[in-house]
Automatic annotation (TrEMBL):
Presence of the UniProt keyword Oxidoreductase in the record: no
Ranges for domain Prolamin-like: 38-109
UniProt KW keywords: Signal
Record carries keyword Signal: yes
Protein name, per record: Prolamin-like domain-containing protein
Alphabetical list of Pfam families matching this protein: Prolamin_like
InterPro entries recorded: Prolamin-like (IPR008502)
Top-level taxon: Eukaryota
Annotated signal peptide: 1-20
Length: 115
């Protein structure tokens, strides 16, 4: 159990670092700043990690984080997850990650409609 927890923690740290640096290297500087200003600042760091955990692992997400995700918007969610999944060490499973991204979005929209 400790090994699994340690691996999951390491995965979150790596993906969080990728999130921090990918926009700066994948898109033009002005576009990266726009993404940062309009997307990443709309959700809490914990919710961002939960979202990453759901898409790139076997994490779970709270209803509150779903509300934050929907508030962030589909374009932001899709774009940021796509940037992460395009990394060389993740691209082999990109189709799976994009499906999980879309499934998460559908789930969160349904959660916000029932609240």
């Amino acid at each position: 159990m400790t090994t699994s927890t340690s691996q999951l923690t390491t995965l979150f740290i790596v993906v969080a670092l990728v999130c921090a640096f990918v926009p700066a290297f994948s898109v033009e500087e002005g576009e990266a700043k726009t993404l940062w200003d309009t997307c990443l600042l709309k959700i809490t760091p914990k919710c961002a990690l939960d979202i990453i955990g759901v898409v790139f692992g076997n994490g779970t997400i709270t209803d509150a984080c779903c509300h934050d995700l929907v508030e962030e918007g589909k374009v932001c969610h899709d774009t940021l997850i796509k940037y992460i999944s395009d990394r060389p060490h993740l691209v082999a499973n990109e189709t799976q990650y994009l499906k999980k991204r879309d499934d998460l979005w559908t789930h969160c929209v349904s959660v916000t409609k029932t609240a």
